[in-house]
Here is the input.
Amino acid sequence: MTITAPTVTTTDGVPSRRSTRAHSRAAGIFYLLTFASSIPALILLAPVLNDAAYVTGAGQDTRVLWGCLLDTVNALTAIASAVAVYSVVKRQNGGMALGFVTSRLVEGAVVMIGVVSLLAVVTMRQDYAGSGADPASLTVTANALVSVRDWTFLFGPGLMPVFNALLFGTLLYRSRLVPRLIPTIGLVGAPLLFAAFVANLFGIFDQVSTGSFFLTLPIAAWELSVGLWMTFKGFRPEAVAALEARDAA
Here is the structure.
């Protein structure tokens, strides 16, 4: 006769296996939403990012607003993905689990600074362009706000995933909650992404370039693969049982 573990939430706050599956599925979905919202957002934001005279022209405000909305989704789902798995991975290492949540929170906050900067450009175009305001001053101010967004794009999605991958990847690798190949991709991709960050910071090549693409590809593969695995497969039952045994010891 096989005895299965309880599938209800325990009274001491430790997630049951049923709730653990729900947490992994939620985290996977949030990871996929983060992944899926980032590229369309970049495309939609192209007019304000690439046109220095956007603030004094006809503008494509609706398109830009949709891009800002997708960036907001990106920021919120990034944070939610870490919160969803915290109660599970903290049983492997509480400090690293908290660090992972913190790194995702910082990433989301930095992204939102960029969103607000672009929304300010849209507001300037709608309220001041054509109203007699000095076009040169408007352009300088708008370009400064776009520059803020460019830097947040570098320090948010261009840097923080390094820490996300190192922390979450290590937790998953040690706990074996997913096949070790998946976190290995993230652990290999983290230093490559950091190299891309340094190259972008010092102007060796642009953040949107062939060099950046190849250096960031492993991190993208890591985020996609861990998102898909957590969504459709969930954490491995034997690994969850091992963490439960550690808690009970």
Notes: The CA atoms of residues 103 and 163 lie 7 Å apart.
